[in-house]
Design brief:
By secondary structure, the chain is mainly alpha-helical. The protein is 47% helix and 0% strand. It has one domain.
Amino acid sequence: MMDLVSAALACDLTRVATIQWADLAANNSFPWLGLDDTHHGYQHDRGYQPDGISKIDTWYATQFKYFLDQLASPTTARDHWPDWFEPALAPDELEEICALRDGNTA
């Protein structure tokens, strides 16, 4: 999602975006961090567990830094696309739209 948002912003297809990593209840789990409970569980349900919360907070901060790095990158929108993303337009068509938007002629 962050790659798609950064590509849309880089190509000026939008100037507003929302990224939501979790729902209000924070019942998402993080098995790739070696955690077997949900975010809410580490925060409230089984008592505050600072080690688990620290891992989760660090992961969120790392993801946000990745997103900010994407936004700061001077590369084209095409370079922001994840490998699995197939845009509705061909890459040169999207780059041409971006170039035209910037006042360049194709």
